[in-house]
Amino acid sequence: MNEMFSIAGKVAVITGAGGVLGGSIARSFVKAGARVVAMDIRPEQLEKRVEELRAEGGDVMGVIGNVLDIESLKKVADDIVAQWGRIDILLNIAGGNMPGATLAPDQPVFEMKITDWEKVTNLNMNGTVYPSLVFGEVMARQRSGSIVNVSSMAAYSAITRVPGYSAAKTAVSNFTQWMATEMALKYGDGVRVNAIAPGFFIGDQNRAVLINPDGSLTERSKKVLAKTPMKRFGDISELNGTVQFLCSEAASFITGTIIPVDGGFSAFSGV
C-alpha cells in the first residue's frame, strides 16, 4: 500500500466495536496493521469480536466501556495510554436508531414517546461528544490524532419517521465541524476531526423497514433506491476505505468535513 494511506502501527479506539459497522471497520483496520482498541458496552458481543480480530492476527485490546459515562471513558483512556503509550485514532461508531424511536407510517409525531426520543438523541449525540472529549484530550496533549464520527443522510434533509435520529445526527455533523475548528485553532494542525455520512445499508436496525418478511423490498426501500443514482444499497464494507483515508496522512489537510458514502443519494434531486 502507498505509505500515504497507511495506518500501520496506529492505536485506534473503536466504540461500538461489537456491532456490524464497528466490526467491519475493526477488521479492516486490523488487516491494515493498526492496533485496535475494541470498545463496547455488551460483554458477549465484545468478547466474540475480540476473538475474531485476534484470529485475523490483530494486536487487539478489548475493553468494556460506556460512551455515555465520562468516568468509564477516562478509565479506558488511561488503560490504553498505560499499555500502548498513545491514542492516534478515535472512531465514534456507537450509535444507531431504536425501534421505539421510529414512528409508524401513519403515526403523528405528537404521539412519539419522549423517553425514546431521549434515548436515541442521547446515544447518538452525547455518545459521540463524550468520547471525543475524553480521547480528544489525549490527542490534544500529543498534538496529533484523528477523530472520525458517523453522521447520516438524515442530517442532509428530512427523512420521515425518524425524528430523534435525524436531530441527533444533525448535531453530530455540527459538532464535527465545531470540534475540528476547536482542535486546529488551539492545538495545531495535527489533530483532525471529520465524519462520514453513510447512505442506505441494510442492517439489523433497519431491516424490518426496508425488507419485507418474504425478502421483497418495502415501499420505503423503493423510495430510497429511486433517489439513489447507483440504484442499490451499499455494502457495509464500502465505508472502510473512506474511514481509513481520513485517518491517514493522505488526509492531513482535511478537517471539519462530512463525507457522504451514499451512492449519490445526497447529490440527486430525484429528477
List keywords for this structure.
2 domains; globular; seven-stranded parallel beta sheet; Rossmann fold; alpha/beta; 14% strand; 271 residues; 42% helix
Question: Could you please describe the fold and organization of this structure?
Answer:
This protein is an alpha/beta fold and 271 residues long. The chain has two domains: 222 residues, 3-Layer(aba) Sandwich (Rossmann fold); 30 residues, no CATH class. 42% of the residues lie in helices and 14% in strands. α3 runs parallel beside α4. The protein is globular. The chain starts with 10 loop residues before the first strand and ends in a 10-residue tail after the last strand.
Secondary-structure topology with pairs:
Elements: E1 11-15, H1 20-31, E2 35-40, H2 43-55, E3 60-64, H3 70-84, E4 89-91, H4 114-142, E5 145-150, H5 163-187, E6 191-198, H6 207-210, H7 219-226, H8 240-247, E7 258-261
Parallel strand pairs: 1-2, 1-4, 2-3, 4-5, 5-6, 6-7
Helix pairs in contact: 1-8, 3-4, 4-5
